[in-house]
Design a protein that fits this description.
The structure is a homodimer. By secondary structure, chain A is an alpha/beta fold. Chain A folds into 3 domains: 37 residues; 254 residues, 3-Layer(aba) Sandwich (Rossmann fold), CATH 3.40.50.300; 29 residues. Chain A has 15 helices and 7 strands. In chain A, strands 3-2-4-1-5-6-7 form a 7-stranded parallel beta sheet, sandwiched between helices. In chain A, β5, α9 and β6 form a beta-alpha-beta unit.
């Protein structure tokens, strides 16, 4: 039986084997991805992003458990977790206590947890994540969590892989408003304030609500200190970003997040948003693939010797970076 | 007089003009960069990175002021600040109070502050930052701060542009240890705990010190929960990362950071580290340039029509991402 077929039939060993091949970028892995691709497009991809220490891994753990043991009348779902965050307990990067909490999921055959082994290059990481998500999708995992750290451009890139993006904040230094302005507003479908038992939670909540409410009341109004690149497109398109409080370590407040995820999925289906996001998602994936492949091919085309010689001339400032570029890409030694 | 020459002679208007040209990627800007490149390599490039809310902009503000008004016996330096962080008060992205604090530097002709106007693509951002740093370097700015947010891959890329990297933490959620493991240990030359008047500062300090001390006492020992990719190369090479406490809003504890920066510069010169970092820095710059240029050229080579057709086939799952790649790069329609 082919590897792809074994995976489609639920063979976990075959699945694990393909995931490794995909991470290593083997030809067999790529062949198998091609074979599986027609079976993708069914999973609900949920991005979970937040700073280290916001407790997002614990939250994902609780949510995964709830998808496995849902409220009465709802079917349990097959759940996969892809931890892109190197600080995630799923990746083995956190203190022991956190990993102990993950034991709830350990013996469950309906759950598959995969952490990205290496950080690698940025583009490579996002491409590999996309490939791994595809494998889980084709293997019949209905809910796939993609956990990423922070809110930089890299995380925004990875967020484009998801249908629903949960941004996790925790009451902290009181400058949450800054984090929101840094592009989080643009990617959040659901906002979770975790560690809601900490003293400063009211400040955090007030700051978040004021931003979201103000935007909804009057989308044309701009606060004088608001950078002009902050958009509220998703709010105005019929989805109001819920702001929910949890204490994930105590399993508190998880059910409302679970419900918000279901409601967002419904919203995606009922509006044209699901299709639009699939389009963006696959285009991002394709563009990343192109970028990485162009670089790989160029690297193969040039000898290490030539490259080193040009680099040495650059370091000794005999040529400028743009001259070096010209020489390396066009062989222009003039 | 040529633009490059005006800049070399200290004309601020010419400098501002070139910075805009560099940001817009004009041919004149590139020409001027080539002309200026031989005059670079003198500035001390200081990266300052930390989460939104850690107060790194305020710290940079205090440090810049101290470089302008140094302790007796030391010359004042020309200081430039490049704010890559879109949440930075330097970029206009923060609350009014923060920006008011920046007034100390406003009227000083020996200081030039430039924030990156747009986030743009990730690669583009790092390349443009490198170019802008070069301009300041050639223009005679002796100390150049590069302020970036967070500690993701993007920030590590930008940190490679610096000779000395300051990581700013603030007492917060108590999970500082996670942030360190997420690659910060690899890039920090100086660690600053800002907002040291907050209650949890002792925990933060203890967590940071335990990691650094343990690494120094026995570099071969590995903690069982330590991911294997954490390296302590810089510690073992003769530089002990200082951990310093500041309250930047009150201008407290700034002088020790200033001294640590000077000591680190001395260390770089006395060891072979300065040369090694220059090599890494210029190589990173060159690699980014190559990557961006390859993509730009490919984009120009393909018609929007072809691209859209392939993308549509991908979205409808008639072809896989790797098939789409083959078609777009090789015209392979088989």
């Amino acid at each position: 039986m082919s590897l792809a077929k074994s995976i489609r039939e639920g063979n976990r060993l075959a699945l694990a084997r393909l995931l490794t091949q995909v991470e290593n970028g083997t030809a067999e892995g790529r062949e198998c991805l091609n074979e599986l691709f027609p079976y993708t497009g069914n999973a609900h991809l949920i991005g979970v992003t937040g700073s280290p220490g916001s407790g997002k891994s614990t939250l994902v753990n609780c949510l995964a458990f709830l998808f496995r043991h849902p409220p009465e009348g709802e079917p349990p779902r097959q759940v996969a977790v892809v931890a892109v965050d190197p600080t995630s307990p799923f990746s083995g990067g956190a203190i022991l206590g956190d990993r102990l909490r993950m034991r709830d999921l350990a013996g469950d055959a309906g759950v598959f947890i995969r952490s990205m082994a290496s950080r690698g290059s940025l583009g490579g990481l996002a491409t590999t994540t996309a490939d791994i998500v595809q494998v889980f999708d084709a293997a019949g995992y209905e809910v796939i969590f993609i956990e990423t750290v922070g809110a930089g451009q890299a995380e925004v890139d990875i967020a484009r892989l998801a249908h629903t993006t949960i941004v996790v904040e925790s009451p902290g230094t009181g400058d949450e408003v800054q984090a929101i302005k840094a592009g989080i507003l643009e990617i959040a479908d659901i906002l979770v304030i975790n560690k809601a038992d900490l003293p400063m939670v009211e400040n955090t909540e007030r700051a978040l609500r004021s931003i979201f409410n103000w935007d909804m009341e009057d989308p044309t109004h701009h606060h004088p200190d608001e950078p002009s690149n902050v958009k509220v497109s998703r709010v105005t398109k019929g989805w109001q970003v819920p702001i929910l409080k949890t204490v994930a370590t105590d399993n508190e407040g998880i059910q409302p997040v679970y419900q918000a995820i279901s409601q967002h999925l419904q919203y995606l289906y009922q509006s044209q948003e699901w299709l639009r996001r699939e389009h963006i998602r696959l285009q991002s994936m394709l563009d990343l693939l192109i970028q990485n492949t162009l670089l790989e091919r160029w690297q193969k085309s040039i000898s290490t010797e030539t490259y080193q010689k040009v680099l040495n001339n650059l370091v000794s400032r005999q040529i400028s970076p743009y001259h070096a570029l010209q020489i390396l890409l066009d062989g222009d030694l003039s």
